Amino acid sequence: MQKAALEWSNAKLLQWRRQKTREQWTNSFRQQRKAAYNRTYLDFSLAFARMVYEGHGNLKLYDDERQALPRRDTNLLKYDTLVNRFFNANQNALLDAVIITTIKLSA
């Protein structure tokens, strides 16, 4: 622990780390990272929406069920964010996606 604290107080080491980080965070890397995060958000949120749909027959209680979870899951988007980000604010498109994944999984 003391070694780490000592290293973080070293100005030359900090400058080197800043430079390496800048080199790693290219536009291509940023795009790939954003796409990976979006895929994760969509996968987790669709799976949760499917669970809500199977339990209630609709998605009206999506946010209520999300808030009722015992532990906050940062990969689950709020309903409005999910609809707006991935379904162009079309709630019917989200519902269709949930129904289609439900049918595929039960077949």
Describe this structure in words.
This protein has 6 helices and no strands. Helix 3 (27-56) crosses helix 6 (91-106). By secondary structure, it is mainly alpha-helical.
Largest sheet, if any?
A: none
Number of strands: 0
What value does the Rg take, in angstroms? 20 Å
Taken from the alpha-carbon principal axes, the silhouette is: elongated
Number of domains: 1
Overview in brief:
Helices cover 76% and strands 0% of the residues.
Write the layout of secondary structure elements.
Layout: H1 2-8, H2 11-24, H3 27-56, H4 62-67, H5 79-86, H6 91-106
Q: Any key phrases for this structure?
A:
107 residues, mainly alpha, 76% helix
